[in-house]
Design brief:
Elements lengths: L18 H5 L4 H5 L21 E3 L4 E2 L16 E3 H8 L20 E8 L16 H16 L4 E6 L9 H10 L4 E4 L5 E3 L6 E6 L5 E6 L1 E6 L1 E2 L2 H9 L25 E3 L9 H19 L25 E6 L11 H8 L5 E7 L5 H14 L3 E6 L2 H14 L7 E5 L1 H5 L6 H19 L9 E3 L3 E5 L3 H12 L3 E5 L21 H13 L4 E4 L2 E9 L2 E8 L2 E7 L1 E4 L3 E3 L13 E3 H9 L10 E8 L13 H15 L4 E6 L9 H9 L3 E4 L7 E5 L2 E8 L4 E7 L1 E6 L1 E3 L3 H7 L26 E3 L9 H19 L3 E3 L5 E3 L9 H5 L5 E3 L9 E3 L9 H5 L5 E3 L4 H14 L1
Parallel strand pairs: 1-12, 3-10, 4-5, 4-10, 5-6, 13-14, 13-15, 15-16, 18-19, 18-24, 19-20, 24-35, 26-33, 27-28, 27-33, 28-29
Antiparallel strand pairs: 2-11, 7-8, 8-9, 17-36, 21-22, 22-23, 25-34, 30-31, 31-32, 37-40, 38-39
Helix pairs in contact: 3-4, 4-5, 7-19, 8-12, 9-10, 12-22, 13-14, 13-19, 16-17
Length: about 900
């Protein structure tokens, strides 16, 4: 079996290890299998599929460090790869999540991580690119290891540049240093030396001040990179797909998922090394690009899903099934699962109880549906992890078993129990029993709920006319949907109008004008320039937004909305900005390049200062694009005048992925990189018409003074932080002002609010190709709604008992979704009613109703009190 949660969860035969396949001997499994599942007569078949588009997502292979003799990976059992260590941390791993050394199964006291093993290496392997993900997964592994083993575990990460440019990554990095106590050592260890037969490992390394230090660690983890396996290189050749120097699929900046062969698209790590959020974004973007190509064929081959008829259980005695998940050792390592199962079996109305290794796995889901039918169960409790991600999965299982999906209650015995009481198993077991008892009491009073079918308006609105908004609008139109593009400025293009060229050499202004022209000429796209949104009503599939332009109001009806409101560069208040016209920002320099300023050819010395306003208190995030942008511009200056002395003063160079080639090229061209720290920022002085930059050089161990003709500040990217717009669509923003996605990995292009999606700089700083990819991803997610043409409201909504209503209007004033209103006509005129399509089931109106006239379906007063009474028993 591939792994405990494989889909499908079935055994397979490894042909390289099978004696029968290799030598035509044995065959015992075929003889012993009671259901005849083993069939050695099966032969390879060729299947021909006729398709309109192809999406390549074949993944990657991890780098094998065995070739590096100095690390002795193959010979030292306590030298592991990061993937092997990941398995050690896993609840379903070989040690059930307990961190021990492979050599003697003892708990380590000191673990070291080596970064860039098989990445950024020009000497020992061909992978001179950055694998993008290694820094973050090393930090994550170190933090989790300390959580598992306790604060006594010493974790040290040896690195060259710490690359944490993703959303919330910089905070995670800072918290690992300041709160978790992970050590970060800027040094590259050359050799691992074993110490006798102890299993310990000696490391000698050079410190930042040039000193030589020796440390002994119990384990070493090699942070291995990502690479394209030879089989995929061969596949690309057979498909006539061009590859990059790093053997990844070649795509274009303005077509980030389109390969060199029309009709074939690429996503994931085959397109370039990337983390999960970006891989998910690119996957949706590829689906959107394929959808644009295949839109004329939409609905021509659709199959209607056959639903199991819903069993009517109204009036039936509750027959409750309780399913307890062990979640590997995530739960069972703390909670006594068998004891919990035995206890639950004695609760009222409970007719069936069992436990499973992973309740969310496909085979458990199928088995659960089968048991519900066989046992005649009419209400279900699942005691597992968080309902935030897993409740819809179990509700789908109920539907497949013929039960109303609201006859279900989920008990979180992981996040709220085993995780918080990991040092007290007895208490955790008792709490699990209490939580399940409360859930059983509540679900026994649950009744089937109905969902209201709502038509979806087949139009989209995109807010923001920058590059991601333009890409989103064009994608909607290419898929056949009427689109309204709303931009508050008089021109389209946003910040892209200030960018000279990309890391790949694309001339941005030419490409941007082509995109703008395509949008303006598309009859399906309605442009609203100099326009602001002043009001929004409605709900998913049926929004009505009021636009204000030149004092005139216009109502637009649409089914979905994409927020692409962009961001702006920080106006710096340091490094002498504003004192001299030669001290400018990165975008100012781009404007000079666009206008072909002749003065740039005469510059003798140029200094770029990185992280101006980024990665510091109050703005603890990396602006992601600045390192690459500065290196691009530095190379452009060198291209115009090879004798120009160019300095880049940085904290960490973050040219992730194949952008590393640009960094390599800059060093080859003689661009000088000088690192600084937050406690020793560069000093810029303007005296007597002369600009000097003073910075402490960590290599020389002394300050150096640079006379500069040009100082360029790589300033932070600042979100617009439009709270009014956020309130209109009920979408959240983080403390920095960027919009918060539904889920960092599972929903990076959509909001938790149904029908609302996001992309571009409004989500987080990113380069043009990633902005366009996310725009297409947002459209792909939106089209899943538009294509359905019908959506359903939730069953857990508020309902007014009109005879009890005092018509006080409190519910109208307190509801954030404008769901309550007064009845306008009939016998109950003036009484309150709830629009089921607008209600989100938050319960504010229920809690505030003075007459007790409002009930929340699925969370009725008797259900809530039943849980409270059951909890009181334990007290």
């Amino acid at each position: 079996m591939e792994y405990p949660q494989a889909v499908p969860l079935k055994y397979r035969i490894d042909p390289d290890a099978c004696i029968y396949i290799q030598k035509q001997k044995c065959g015992a499994c075929e003889k012993k299998c009671p259901v005849g599942a083993v069939d050695f007569t099966q032969k390879e078949k060729m299947v021909v599929l006729n398709v309109g588009a192809v999406i390549l997502a074949p993944g990657f292979e991890p780098f094998n460090p065995s070739a590096f003799d100095n690390y002795q990976y193959a010979g030292l059992p306590n030298v592991l790869t990061s993937l092997e260590f990941e398995r050690l941390l896993s609840a379903s791993g070989p040690t059930m999540g307990h961190v021990t050394r492979p050599s003697d199964h003892q708990e380590p006291k000191k673990i070291a991580w080596f970064q860039c093993v098989g990445s950024r290496d020009q000497n020992r392997c061909d992978n001179s690119y950055c694998s993008s993900v290694c820094c973050m997964y090393a930090i994550k592994e170190a933090v989790i290891a300390k959580e598992h083993a306790g604060d006594d575990l010493d974790c040290a990460i040896f690195f060259m540049d710490m690359r944490t440019p993703g959303k919330e990554f910089e905070r995670f990095y800072e918290n690992a240093k300041t709160k978790s106590g992970v050590r970060f050592i800027r040094s590259r260890v050359h050799t691992i030396t074993p110490i006798g037969d102890t299993g310990d490992l000696e490391l000698r390394y050079v410190t930042e001040d040039g000193g030589l230090k020796t440390e002994i660690f119990n384990m070493v983890v090699l942070s291995i990179g990502l690479q394209t396996p030879p089989a995929l290189v061969e596949l690309a050749g057979s498909l006539n797909i061009e590859l990059t120097p790093g053997n990844f699929c070649r795509t274009e900046t303005f077509a980030p998922v389109t390969t060199s062969r029309p009709g074939i698209f690429a996503c994931g790590a085959f397109q370039g090394p990337k983390d999960i959020p970006q891989a998910v974004i690119d996957a949706s973007a590829a689906a959107s690009a394929a959808g644009e190509l295949l839109s004329p064929a939409r609905n021509t081959r659709t199959k209607t899903k056959e639903f199991v008829p819903e069993t009517n259980v109204v009036g039936d005695r509750p027959s409750i099934g309780v399913f307890v998940c062990r979640c590997g050792v995530n739960i069972a390592g703390v909670v006594d699962a068998p004891a919990v199962v035995e206890y639950a079996a004695g609760l009222p109305y409970v007719d069936y109880v069992t436990d499973n290794l992973f309740a969310c796995s496909q085979d458990t889901q199928d088995g659960m549906a089968k048991l519900i039918r066989e046992k005649g169960l009419n209400r279900i409790v699942v005691a597992a992890c968080t309902p935030k991600t897993h409740e819809p999965l179990f509700q789908e299982t109920l539907i497949n078993a013929g039960l109303n999906k609201y006859l279900f209650e989920m008990t979180n015995i992981r996040n709220q129990d085993s995780w918080v009481h990991k040092n007290n198993p007895d208490l955790a077991t008792t709490k699990a029993k209490d939580l399940i008892r409360m859930s059983v009491a509540k679900v026994a009073l649950t009744e089937p709920l109905k969902e209201v079918a709502l038509p979806v308006n087949q139009a989209a609105m995109v807010v923001g006319g920058g590059i991601s908004g333009l890409a989103a609008a064009k994608s909607f139109a290419d898929q056949g949907y009427e689109t309204h593009l709303v931009e508050q400025e008089s021109l389209l293009g946003g910040q892209a109008r200030n960018i000279f060229h990309t890391a790949r050499g694309d001339m941005v202004q030419e490409k941007l004008e082509e995109l703008i022209s395509a949008v303006e000429s598309d009859e399906s796209i309605h442009l609203h320039l100099n326009t602001r949104i002043t009001a929004v009503e409605g709900f998913v599939g049926n929004f009505k937004s009021t636009l204000s332009a030149n004092g005139k109001l216009q109502d637009i009806e649409h089914g979905v909305v994409v927020l692409a409101t962009g961001a702006s560069p920080l106006t710096p208040d340091e490094y002498g900005f504003g004192q001299d016209p030669r001290i400018i920002t990165s975008l100012d320099l781009d404007r000079k390049f666009i206008e072909n300023d002749p003065g740039l050819n005469n510059i003798q010395s140029a200094v770029f200062i990185q992280c101006v306003g980024s990665r510091e208190p109050g703005r603890m995030y990396c602006s992601r694009v600045c390192c690459t942008h500065s290196i691009e511009n530095a190379l452009e200056l060198k291209h115009r005048n090879a004798d120009t002395n160019v300095y880049i003063i940085y904290r960490d160079i973050r040219t992730y992925g194949e952008k590393e080639y640009l960094y390599k090229k800059a060093r080859e061209k003689g661009i000088i990189f000088v690192r600084y720290s937050m406690d020793q920022k560069p000093l810029v002085a303007v005296e007597n018409g002369r600009i000097t930059v003073t910075v402490a050089d960590h290599v020389l161990g002394r300050s150096m003074e640079i006379s500069a003709d040009l100082v360029t500040l790589a300033t932070a990217i600042i979100p617009r932080g439009d709270e009014q717009l956020a309130n209109f669509f009920k979408v959240p923003m983080n403390e920095d002002g960027f919009f918060i996605e539904r889920h960092a990995k599972l929903g990076p292009s959509e909001f938790a609010t149904d029908g609302a999606f996001l992309c571009g700089l409004a989500h987080y700083p990113k380069p043009i190709d990633e902005s366009i990819a996310q725009a297409k991803a947002a459209v792909a997610r939106a089209v899943t709604l538009l294509a359905k043409q019908t959506v359903y409201s939730s069953g857990t909504i508020a309902q007014v008992e009109t005879l009890k209503c005092a018509a006080c209007g409190v519910c109208l004033s307190i509801c954030p979704y404008n769901a309550p209103s007064f009845i306008a006509e009939g016998r109950m005129v003036g009484k309150a009613e709830i629009n089921p399509a607008l209600c989100k089931g938050c319960g504010l109106c229920v809690a505030s109703c003075r007459s007790g006239a409002i009930r929340l379906k699925g969370f009725d007063t008797d259900q809530i009190f039943s849980q409270i009474f059951e909890l009181a028993e334990a007290i």
